[in-house]
Amino acid sequence: MTGAAILAATVAITKVVGMVYKIPLFNILGDAGSGHFNVMYYIYTLILTISTAGVPVAISRLISEARASSRPMQAKRYYSVGMMTFGIIGIVAMVCMLVNAQWLADMVHDSEVAVGVRCLAPAVLFACIVSVLRGYAQGHNKMLPTSISQLMEVGCKLVFGLAIAWYLKSVGASTPVIAAGAIVGVTIGLGLSIPVLIFQCRHIARNTPMTLNLDQPMSRGATAKKILAVSIPITLSSSVLNIINLIDTANIRERLANGAGFIQDKVDVLYGVYSKGMTFFTVPSSFITPICVAVVPVIAGALAKRELGQAKSTMESCMKLTNLIAMPAAIGLAVLAKPIFEVLFPGSNERGPELLTVLGLASYFVCSYLITNGVLQATGFEKLALVALPAGGLIKIGINYVLVGNPDINISGAPIGTLVCYFVITVLNLIFITVKVPERPNYIKITVRPLICALVMGAAAWGVYGLCRHFIMGPEGQGRLLSAICLGLAILAAVFVYLVLIIALRAVTKEDILLLPKGEKLAKVLKLR
Questions:
Q1: Domain count, the chain
Q2: d(Cα 175, Cα 163) in Å, to the nearest integer?
Q3: Residues 476 and 344 in one domain
């Protein structure tokens, strides 16, 4: 939980910086340009996932297991072989993106994004190297290097990305070119984080105590096979969803054009406002990813030592913490969708709040999918995700094909497909954990109280916003600044109500708090017994 807290704090900072980046960028680009930006990023994410998704988890898990088994030389071998293997994979992926950029753009029915795909190609190579370095640090239970590199990435994206976008806008560049320029910051950030991570990993290596009885590591070939054996199922499970998301992007745009019968400009606008909603949809899950990263080596290490009770306790803590974060976030996004769009994206298509309401609810199941996937990966059942992900993804494609192609529903069908998709994946993962994992978590214990607290919090947020809007904004209800004040007051009220409830209903116990950094002091402040 200490590692999770470090990464979660980093995510909080990076998300704030990310919003500072995306909100003005999307207002520069407009609805259509925002859609182009998201399409570029989906293509990049797919190639990146295929290249790197399983790397940090595999490297961290294998190094953690080797250290728990007193095999320091094998831990070093995992690092060196991993760097060589995924460096080669990164070079191949980069060349594929450069050569096939136009084909990838045409495949998703947005031929104008090819320039952005080329700008992101070097980022894949950099990400492969960064992933191995992060995995090495995480395998030693050191989360700070990952945090520092993430902050560098998002800082460069903000500074360089926005600067380039504003310059291109000022010289009259086209919207797709501006979007491509903005995305260059991602490549710069990853490139600059590599030397910083190398320095930190060398520091970890120098300060790792060596045992007198050095082990005989496996051959490089056998080590590479072991890394790939662990990383490939994880990569495939992650890639399946990204492949489905990319197919779904093409599907949505095609169905809006040929099913609902909209002209291309209308398609760009509707997909663009959906992309704006997706910006908030991904925020809650960003806070869950650090928890997954932190607990995988802990659970793997406990199972390697046959400490089943410790493994179960860690699973319950991480799943409960996920509910405590994801449930209020999802309900908050759903009930405050309209003022969020009014304040942050003024002038957007009127469908935005409706889309965000459904996406807000769907965000909870994304978080649940991530943490249950993390538990399966840590316990050695990562291959089961290859069953759940395609099932949910195919359902999503089917729902979107039918609903988005209906002129009366059109883009409103896309978030419905997303909600059903992640709900199915979560349910299947929970079934797998129940059947396969020894000492499985108590689901009722970790779900009921956080859900009650989140529902009451949502009612409070909705009520406070309604009252503030009535008394502050008046019957006309106009004004971005006044709407922002009402939204801020509603959020403050929701936070206060939620914190009081989770303590009063003992949704958070002293045992949970003690897992966090400075947990003893926090427990005393909160008067938990």
A1: 2
A2: 15
A3: no
Q: Which of 441, 464, 493 is the last residue of a domain?
A: 441
How much of the chain is in helix, strand and coil states, percent to nearest 5? 85, 0, 15
Rounded Cα distance between 5 and 317, Å, is 13
How far apart are alpha carbons 318 and 302 in whole angstroms? 15
**Residue 300 sits in the same domain as residue 415:** yes
Angle at 86 between CA 81 and CA 92, to 5 degrees: 140
Is residue 272 located within the same domain as residue 334?
yes
Q: What's the start-to-end Cα distance of the chain, in Å? A: 20
Q: How far apart are CA 448 and CA 327, in angstroms?
A: 11
Domain span at residue 450 reads 445-529
CA 248/CA 389 separation, integer angstroms = 14
**What is the value of pTM for the model shown?**
0.72
With beta carbons less than 8 A apart as the criterion, state whether 267 and 257 touch: yes
Whether 162 and 268 share a structural domain? yes
Give 42's contacts (C-beta < 8 A, 6+ positions apart). Answer: 108, 242, 245, 246, 249
Same domain, 379 and 500: no
HEC letters along 188-209: HHHHHHHHHHHHHHHHHHHCCC
pLDDT tens readout for residues 385-444: 778 888 888 899 899 999 999 999 999 999 999 999 999 999 999 999 888 877 777 888
- Smallest CA-to-CA distance from 32 within 160, 152, 178, 156 is with 178
Residue 410 DSSP code: G
Q: Count CB neighbours of 506 within 10 A.
A: 12
The answer to whether residue 413 is domain-embedded is yes
Burial of 219 (C-beta count, 10 Å sphere; 0-12/13-18/19+) = exposed
Question: Given 401, 420, 441, which residue is the final one in a domain?
Answer: 441
| Cβ–Cβ < 8 Å for 321, 512 | yes
The span from the CA of 433 to the CA of 319, in Å, is 12
Task: List, in sequence order, the alpha helices (H) in 282-307.
Answer: 283-304
| Distance (Å) of CA 466 to CA 299, 403, 471 | 45, 32, 9
Same domain, 236 and 373: yes
Mean per-residue pLDDT, 58-69: 78
For 174-230, the pLDDT digits (tens) are 888 888 888 888 888 888 888 988 888 888 777 766 655 566 777 888 888 887 887
Cα three-residue angle 410-416-368, rounded to 5 degrees:
155
From 228, 224, 118, select the one nearest 179 (Cα to Cα). 118
Task: Report the C-alpha gap between 113 and 101 in whole angstroms.
Answer: 8
Q: Is the dihedral of CA 167, 121, 363, 380 positive or negative?
A: negative
CB 212 within 8 A of CB 146: no
